[in-house]
Specification:
This protein is an alpha+beta fold and about 230 residues long. Helix content is about 35%, strand content about 20%. The strands form two sheets. A six-stranded mixed sheet has the order 7-6-1-3-2-8. The chain has a two-stranded antiparallel ribbon with strand order 4-5. It is globular.
Length: about 230
């Protein structure tokens, strides 16, 4: 389990020593771009659609999608539990049903839902880790896709099956595909966290490598933002 205090103190204890679970940075550095989905939504007219993804700590997932061309906004928040429980101290206990999630608002004329899924699985997180990502452990850090329509479910299910059949990962994908009941934005201090705290050791070790992987693997999709 990680609380805001534990997360901030993680590297105060680990700096200069061997980290307990260094998978996040190593995974991001070694990750390879996955094939484009064979099943996707057709490009649509310019506008706004939304998608909600969960893949461990929302700071890094949000930062990745903020840098994707065609994404209008990325907001950290909570999905899977009740409104009353959508508060960071409660979610951090791992008993609320919530997952730390990111709501991505995108222009379907510039980037498709399937392309967002490709980035999510390629660089935003490791979809083979069950109820954890890197140093963060608990169901609140599970890998999940919260679908808002039958089309989103269809594309997500097909892509996971495609990747598992191709053995794109050394272990099976454990990502949940579940209906979106409600997305609750997180507290303001969590928003755009990476850009505001680029030198924090947790960000340097766990999340900056994801941005580097996005820029390296998807140069045509990467955009600089503040």
């Amino acid at each position: 389990m990680r609380t805001s205090y534990l997360k901030a103190g993680f590297f105060a204890l680990a700096m200069g020593a061997v980290l307990l679970h260094p998978v996040t940075a190593a995974w991001a550095e070694a990750a390879q771009p996955l094939p484009a989905p064979k099943v996707d939504m057709a490009p649509a007219a310019a506008g706004s659609q939304s998608a909600v993804f969960a893949g461990g700590c929302f700071w890094g997932v949000e930062a990745v999608f903020r840098h994707v061309k065609g994404v209008k906004s990325a907001v950290s928040g909570y999905s899977g539990g009740s409104a009353a429980a959508a508060k960071y101290p409660l979610v951090s206990m791992g008993t609320t049903g919530h997952a730390e999630s990111v709501e991505v608002v995108f222009d379907p004329a510039q980037v498709t839902y399937g392309e967002l899924l490709r980035i999510f699985f390629s660089v935003a997180h490791d979809p083979t880790e069950l109820n954890r990502q890197g140093p963060d452990v608990g169901t609140q850090y599970r890998s999940a896709i919260f679908f808002a329509s039958d089309d989103q479910k269809r594309v997500a299910d097909a892509y996971i099956a495609e990747l598992n059949t191709a053995k794109a990962f050394p272990r099976p994908i454990v990502t949940e595909v579940t209906p979106l009941a409600k997305f609750y934005p997180a507290e303001s201090y969590h928003q755009n966290y990476l850009a505001l705290h680029p030198d924090q050791p947790y960000i340097v070790y766990n999340d900056l490598p994801k941005l580097a992987a996005l820029k390296r693997q998807f140069p045509q999709r990467y955009v600089d933002v503040k």
